[in-house]
Batch of 2 targets.
Target 1
Amino acid sequence: MLRNPRDVKDELIQIYPKKLRQKRSEQIVVTEHREDGSVPEIKANVRSSPGIITQRGCTYAGCKGVVIGPSRDILSLVHGPIGCSFYAWLTRRNQTRPESPEAQNFINYCLSTDMQEENIVFGGEKKLRVAVREAYQLFHPKAIAIFSTCPVGLIGDDVHAVAREMKAELGINVFGFSCEGYRGVSQSAGHHIANNGLFKHIIGLNETPHDDKFKINLLGEYNIGGDGFVLEDILSRCGIKQISTFSGNSTYDTMANSHTADLNLVMCHRSINYVAEMMEKRFGIPWVKVNFIGAESTAKSLRRIAEYFEDDGLRARVEEVIAEEMAKVEATCARVKARCQGKTAMLFVGGSRAHHYQTLFTEIGMKTIAAGYEFGHRDDYEGRKVLPGLKVDADSRNIEELEVVPDPERYRPRRTPEQVAKLEGMTEMEFRDYIGMMPEMDDDTLVIDDLSHHETERLLEIYKPDIFCAGIKEKYAVQKMGIPCKQLHSYDYGGPYAGFKGAINFFNDIDRMVNMKIWSYVTPPWQPKIQQPAEVAAD
Ligand code: CFM
């Protein structure tokens, strides 16, 4: 019998000083579905309290590492001390596949201005100019992106002025990001800054036409562990043309050409909803939320695309692909389910996976007993319907909101309001909507925003879940407590986990982890040590 989550919540926070206890009590909620359709309000996207040991990353990580980094032929240049670059160098498993061995691919490089004390005192713009020129001479990229780290904002280097100057001098696209680590409360601010940059400096610059019938962009898919490759394969087998992905396995040209698509699919809402919104306003491309994690969710998302295009041929092809793939998934699912049914999981990841991956656990009969985002906002937890009521605080005001108006020549609503109303009525297709994590969770489950290390340890002691999903920062602390930890950021060394093929991989990996005997040999700190023979002899 699981302990009452309300008592557990009190226990988690009782050690904190009063003010912190109050704050954390608003960031920890127990799920319930109320009669009016609402779920409890959670406090999210607020500053982490000092000393709490957060899982979060910084704004620069969200901009450079998450959103722009996966694009292979935009040359990323980090303006800052070398340490910031070190941690952006291939630490995220975003994969890419150039068209040919000669095609440009800068993913495995790490370029930095390597700021020194002298640059901090006298300014770093000169060094940045030299670095941009040198990078251009070495690689001849189509575009160079400059990322600001904390000291750049503190000393007031104007990366945007340098970018404009270099753009004129070199004749290529050069743009800067004011994504200093401290700009926001987490990497989420960096996503927004990156989205604004994509929109201002790239999207709409390539007019190459395509005569394909079903053209989409996939937003918020970063090809971690090859997820994007699996999805490209499924979509092309269905006959759907993927103009661009933001930004897994993408190129500068495809992103510049993305405004020619007729539908935007939003996979990770947190990191890229801004681009989806802005593209709809400027170009008239509607967006729908999809989820390609889990076989059922993948099938549902594909059917959603087919409905949008209202084409019988496409509907038939989608059904064929689903039938073919589902047969394979079901065999593994049944085998794994028999071994995993009733086991428990906890998921504390980023701003979207803690929701999406619950579907995969459900498919093999496992129960999610606690979940939370590192940096999700209230809409990621409660659904986009809470957006109008959200207050803009000092931290979010830091980030520019672009004024977007319809493009005088290129604005073309892809669907009339009547078509939209018809589509929304016929299927479960909601445009511009995301239901959020909590409405899809069972009642009486713990949802915790920005989980602290202390809370992690207590949760593990109290519930002893069969698996804990998080990242590298938590992994070994969790495993020392005798509980397997699956990294849901990098997938450890595994994956892909998206689509049908990904579901099979995930089921097999989870089966191995939760049923592995080795964990029963670890003595967790809360259990008395078993006396060793030598100690017995010494008595
Ligand atoms: Fe989106 Fe991501 Fe995520 Fe994210 Fe991330 Fe990531 Fe993530 Mo790590 S973009 S919010 S900032 S799905 S890097 S691929 S795994 S925290 S849950």
Target 2
Amino acid sequence: MSPPTRASYRDIPLYAPSKARCRVDLSDNTNLFGLPPAAERVLRETTATQVGRYPVGYSPDLRQAVARYTGMDPAQVTTGCGSDDVIDCTLRAFLEPGELIAYPSPTFVMMSYFAKVNGLRYAPVRLRPDFDIDVDGLLATGAKLIYVCSPNNPTGTVASRAALERLVDTAPGLVLIDEAYAEFARDSHLDLARRPNVLVTRTLSKAFGLAAMRVGYAVGAPGLVAEVEKARGPYKVTGLSERMAVAALTEDVPWMRARADEALAVRARLVEELARLGLSCLPTEANFVMVPLRGAPAVAETMRARDVNVRAFAGLPGIGDALRIGCGPWNVMQAALDALREALP
Ligand code: PMP
């Protein structure tokens, strides 16, 4: 007998980026400059007795710490097992199966995945040629939730403030702004989370260097946050992750700022080196660059054989094939550039 599966769900594959274990891994835009010191101290000082009991439900200490870091009230903060989880919970909290979400394309690949898993329909709307979001196109879908990632993964480009404001002012439903890379960008749109129809998600996985601890959060109106909390459930963030994230948000902000600035300096140097190879990058405000390059998947494959992992994309709308390269310490970038030089057709 075949298992009693859900028809619209059965054929969804696992999310499987080419995650070859390479000596140099620039494929996931994480912080390659080390572990925030206060978070590391918590990790070292954690005792056996601290792992035998449940954490306090709904992670109140983490909500407090995020509230202080973002200048919000704890009632305006929800948290989760990475911002992946916060996004997934948001979809479950606000949309019935069969309802529609819209997002610019290309964007964070997990959006179509989360839509499918939650039985939702989804409408990708191409980024404009200048890489700003197409507000009219997004609104024309009539979607109940519109997702915008800025700086955008995988392009690194940003949505303009004017476009975001018009979207928030006129969207019929919820606007979910993903600021996973906010700490690297010139501007933040966190203030839009004070509107009644906006949630802004962020993560400790990128600038704060805690990807393995899986901590993300969203800020927004208390009424919206309360709905997401129900979908999240009480114990989504582990006790250790909560304590490490609280330490990082409270004591390691200067550490994070310095590492983020370092990543931006590396990025500027990388853009120059790529130009020397005849490659131009999209205008980026994240800790990675997108390089349009015909045959990018084959180039990435050759780079992997030289122990360097970068992310390749094929046939992106309006862009074509491209590599996405994260920024780490310069000796790492040097190894990546050497591998790229050898791999170029
Ligand atoms: N949003 C964007 C745009 C991302 O790039 C990522 C990580 N790849 C996430 C959300 C999820 O990050 P996490 O679950 O680690 O917080």
